[in-house]
Specification:
- Helix content is 32%, strand content 7%.
- With 134 residues, the protein is mainly α.
- The protein has 2 domains: 15-52, no CATH class; 63-129, no CATH class.
- Strands 1-2 form a two-stranded parallel ribbon.
- The radius of gyration is 18 Å and the shape is globular.
Length: 134
């Protein structure tokens, strides 16, 4: 659905640009390309904040505490995010010893309330596996 260069919008008009804003600045660029080709007089987001938004930066980091259980759903009709993104995330997590419940529900888009009963069952099964620390 989004054309190339849609995420870091040159006019700072995307939701992704707003993600890197602050209480003072509504939106910022988060790529060098976006900043170089800026048409809105924008500024660049703090590189540390940009790094925080990518979980791939932390999966294999010694200091990071990563949950052992992941449930990832990515609809096959998602027009906003590439199927490769969730596939790469699920693969890296599994390769690092995490329990990953990954599926691509057929004909589902970017939204997510289509399998809440299954989600709650999955959470319940995890709670039964993990000993309580009370």
């Amino acid at each position: 659905m989004k054309p190339a260069q849609a995420f870091d919008g040159l006019a700072l008009g995307t939701g992704e640009n707003s993600l890197f804003g602050s209480c003072v600045v509504n939106a910022r660029h988060f790529t060098a390309f976006g900043m170089i080709h800026d048409i809105a007089g924008g500024t660049m987001a703090d590189p540390n904040v940009v790094r925080l938004m990518n979980p791939m930066n932390y999966i294999e980091t010694r200091d990071a505490i990563c949950t052992g259980f992941w449930r990832i759903r990515h609809g096959t009709a998602d027009r906003d995010t590439s199927l490769a993104i969730s596939t790469i995330l699920a693969t890296r997590l599994a390769n690092n010893g995490c329990s990953v419940d990954f599926a691509m529900p057929w004909a589902q888009g970017h939204g997510g309330d289509y399998d809440l009963d299954e989600l709650f069952s999955w959470v319940d099964s995890i709670c039964r596996q993990v000993p309580s620390k009370r």
